[in-house]
Amino acid sequence: MNGLFSIAPLIIAAPFAGMLVNIAFGRRLMPNKDSIGPGLVASSMAGVSFLVALLMFVALLGSPQGADVPVLTWIDIQGGDISLNIPWTLKVDTLSSVMMLVVSGVGTVIHVYAIGYMHGDIDEKAYLRGLHGEEALDFKRRRYVKFFTFFNLFLGSMLILVTGNNYLMMFVGWELVGLCSYLLIGFWFDSPEANESGKIVGVLNSEAGKKAFIVNRVGDFGMLLALMLIFWTFGTLKFDDVFARAAAAAPTTPIPLGPFTPALGAVVTVITLLLLLGATGKSAQIPLFVWLPDAMAGPTPVSALIHAATMVTAGVYMIARSNVLYAMAPVSGMTVAVIGGLTAFVSGTIAVAQFDIKRVLAYSTISQLGFMFAAVGLGGYIAGIFHLATHAFFKALLFLSAGSVMHGMEHGHHAMAEGENGGGGGDEGHPFDPQDMRQMGGLHKHMKTTTWVYIVGALALSGIPPLAGFWSKDEILLEASLNSTLVYVLLGAATFFTALYMGRQIFMVFFGSERSEAARHAHESPPLMTTPLIVLAVLAIIGGLMNLPFGGFNQLGHWLERSVVNAHTGSFNIDVSITSTVLGLLAIGISYLLYGRKPLEEGQRDPLSTTGPVFTFLNHKWYWDELYDALFVRPFNRLSEFLANTIDWAFWHDFVHDGIIAQFVEGSSRSLRRVQTGYVRNYALAVLLGVVAILVYLVVRFLV
Amino acid sequence: MEEIAFLVPTSYYIILSGVLFAIGVAGVLLRRNAILLLMSVELMLNSANLAFAAFSRTFLDVGGQVFVFFVITVAAAEVAVGLALIVTIFHTKRSIDIDELHAMEG
Fold first, then answer.
1. Is the whole-model pTM more than 0.90?
2. At what angle do helices A264-282 and A330-352 cross, to 10 degrees?
């Protein structure tokens, strides 16, 4: 084993150390309003993680078989014929190293961006709450430190997830990132202004956090069942052992599970479907995707890191990791692919009709995750992981740029509000919303850098060659075209909508004329925020180089082949590429015709709304929330009300307690109280009679 | 243990003790005057003392007499407390008739 592997635990230790430093000393690191101490601590620790990930990459170049680095023994139960042994061991192989590099690399960039962004965001919130001077500083100290504490915790948790060498450690990371997601979505849990200005289109921040957590519980339930079934079937949870045992046995081998003895193939199908349920929760796929759009209530760096680049790709990673099991269960593989295709299509169409800049990106993320699912479901594990990596680059870029836009809009709003003191006017009746694209427009005049990087990200996402998104999306489309026409058609349509909503967004936000005072006064964000954007933009341009589909350039493919048994490197098909590129360009052309040639004016309705009910349908997200509300939430509430009012109150309280038990106690005590006369002599007599009775008993026993 | 012949047989003492105890019990149960109640209790205690002393003599065991001293001590303490209670009762009720004390009636 290469000695370099032994420093692997540092990759997790660094962010946790950063978290502890911020918990203990964070507030002292902020002596004044502009200090960035906590952010620097968190970012440098993320940087250490990235360095370790790079070292792991170097070590893997030397010994590509990877290594298992033991950290500590967690569970060790010795049974008779079965024993449960769960060590916390870091699995460093080519697959986890790709995830480590993406997570810590993109994570570091976003940490650096957040240093600047959170300053602005917290100042804005303090301003909206009317805090000044010492109060504002105290508020900022608490929130700034809290943010980076959670952010470091997330990074460490995500790395636990991708480095675990068994399903249970992966599940630990899985739950930890879920917790961080909940904490960070609800970061402005006490945000009253979000409600009043109608800024949050869906639900309140704290509600959004709860929604994400509860929806994920449904998925985790499936995940947990899958873990139990894996242990029951294979007697172990360690990846290598599970896959070795699964591959060694024939699919028809009977497996004794309690009273049943199903064939191994059937059991694996059930396991993989349950794993899929877990993945649909975490990776926001149909049917559990409804939480992700509302998760945009969190600060923008959170949306970029957790809800676009890393955490939501955990499901894709998990399926790629379990490729041996999915290869044994073609039904599950096909289910994954169809779910992915459907999700890609449905959320792609929804994104076209949204007005909130982050919501468009949220649905776009769901759609792209659908692409990845389709890829891994059809066996294109390399295509899926490839798209995961490139998507992390350009979607993080898009989110951070959107954050930059919001930052600029808020500054514009303030500039306007200060210039207007006592003047009045402005756009009254229009509550200011820095995320509403209808209030933007013409921002390219004010925010040059942001505009350019946004266009780069949008083109990469739309799959325009030669940007990163083109190569990865093409591999997925090729995979689909070879294996399933249905998925191919769905993904093709999704590609079209992807380019359409990105074109619409670019033209609405950056071009045309300003549609609000805030947009007219917007200005570029500070370099601390734009530098990460440029780094990500470069990655979004050249990201495709890691896996070009011709010649000997399939580096990522060859890299992953060592840990993903069923991987096969993609090839290049000119027909598929031309189709997808033409679809993309066509959609951008349409978006230009609708939004670019004759830009939206202030107060004008969206040109797409001429489609009437179709637009309304898409704008209301296919009524998914309403459907779930009717199917689950309201019946659940009714059931709870029934249990509370009828069962608990009416039956148990009123009938059983007040009716039967209380009546009995009252009646019996009514008669028994006569015994209690209050006269000492009566009590003494009772004592005497008792003594006499005992004596009589003793005498009789003695005599008889 | 050898039997010793006494002028008055032990059984006489025991019967006297039983009679005294019964008088004490009857006094506690029947009298209403608190002082008399206390005296009846005292009578019961002393009947027990008599039995102790008689058995002590019969079995030539000094343990019985030791117990008598204990009982006398406890009885003295009990009387002190009991009289204090009676004085207090008299202060509040202007009477020492214990049948007036039935506030604990259910």
1. no
2. 20
Is the Cβ of A670 closer than 8 Å to some Cβ of chain B? no
Query: What's the pLDDT tens digit per position in A125-167?
Result: 888 888 888 888 999 999 999 999 999 999 999 999 999 999 9
Q: Report CB contact under 8 Å: A679, B102.
A: yes
Surface-to-core class of residue A236, CB atoms within 10 Å of its CB (0-12 exposed, 13-18 middle, 19+ buried): buried
- Measured in angstroms, the CA of A672 and the nearest CA of chain B are apart by 9
C-alpha angle with apex A50: A175 to A289, nearest 5 degrees? 35
Q: Is the CB of A678 less than 8 angstroms away from the CB of B102?
A: yes
Chain-centre distance for alpha carbon A361: 14
Q: Is A80 exposed, middle or buried (0-12, 13-18, 19+ CB in 10 A)?
A: exposed
- Write the pLDDT tens digit of every residue in A563-585: 888 887 777 888 888 999 999 99
- Identity of the amino acid at A395: K
Domain ranges of chain B: 33-97
Chain B residue with CA closest to A688: the answer is B25
Euclidean distance between CA atoms A678 and B101, whole angstroms: 7
User: Between chains, do A684 and B104 touch, taking CB under 8 Å as contact?
Assistant: no
Nearest CA in chain A to B22: A688
User: H helices of A314-447, where?
Assistant: 314-321, 323-328, 330-352, 357-377, 381-419
Of A672, A674, A676, the CB nearest to B104: A676
Given a contact cutoff of 8 angstroms between Cβ atoms, the answer to whether A67 and A58 are in contact is: no
- Residues of chain A in contact with residue B104, where contact means CB-CB under 8 angstroms, are 676, 678
pLDDT of residue A206: 84
pLDDT at A609 over 80: no
Given a cut of 80, whether residue B2 has pLDDT beyond it is no
Judged on CB neighbours under 10 Å (0-12, 13-18, 19+), A480 is: buried
Q: How far is A704 from chain B (nearest CA, A)?
A: 23
> What are the tens digits of pLDDT across the range B9-23?
889 999 999 999 999
Yes or no, beta carbons of B105 and A676 under 8 Å apart: yes
Domain boundaries, chain A: 1-165, 626-703
Q: Tokens in use for A432?
A: 């200011």
Amino acid, single-letter form, for residue A519: A
Residue A421 burial class via C-beta count within 10 angstroms: exposed 0-12, middle 13-18, buried 19 and up: exposed
